[in-house]
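Dear colleagues,

For the upcoming journal club I promised to circulate an example of a predicted protein-ligand complex. I picked one with magnesium ion because it came up in last month's discussion. The inputs are reproduced below in full, followed by the predicted structure.
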Amino acid sequence: MSSSDDSSQAVLALGSNLQPRAQWLDLALDLLGEKGIQVLASTPRWNTAPIGAIPQPDYLNQLVLARGTLRGLGWLKLAQAAEVRAGRRRGVSKGPRTLDVDIILIEGESLTSPGLTVPHPGLLQRPYLLRGAAQLVPDWVHPTEGLSIAELARRDLTGSWAIGSSTPSGSS
Ligand code: ADP
Ligand code: MG
């Protein structure tokens, strides 16, 4: 728990690979504001190569540190509301999307349910997620790895920094 009230903090990953990509990320940020979620910090936006066999455009990604009076599945509902708002159609799994909002970390929580796994399994597999999370919450400890996010990012830099190359983005 991050404070004396019933709020919690979460690291969310926003992604879009259908135009207008930047506007879909802006829409997600607007929706957070509407729902009373505070954005405490955010990373720059990156272009990220898609992962997997489906040919599709590069993603524009951004991570944000959010705080709200939400618990576990409440964060997932919020993420899905943003995706619906962006008109996301669930077609091919891992295919192109207007907006993807993933819950990467929730402070002090470890969850495994059919609808929600936190920390997000991709955190340890996608360098841009680890690097982004390390900018926002370097001191949070990964509940199963037992290392801080900064330590995990450093470990990744000196080890397998191969998957999901990313480059800084302009505005789109
Ligand atoms: P992905 O983000 O992996 O490319 P989707 O956005 O289509 O794929 O999500 C697939 C499912 O993953 C969702 O239905 C959601 O319930 C589930 N899920 C499990 N854990 C998480 C998480 N931490 N964040 C977001 N979705 C999650
Ligand atoms: Mg997703």
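Two points we might discuss: The pocket of adenosine-5'-diphosphate (ligand 1) is lined by residues 76, 79, 94, 100, 102-103, 115-118, 120 (CB under 6 Å). The beta strands are 8-16, 38-42, 46-48, 59-68, 100-106, 111-112, 117-118, 166-168.

See you all on Thursday,
B. R.
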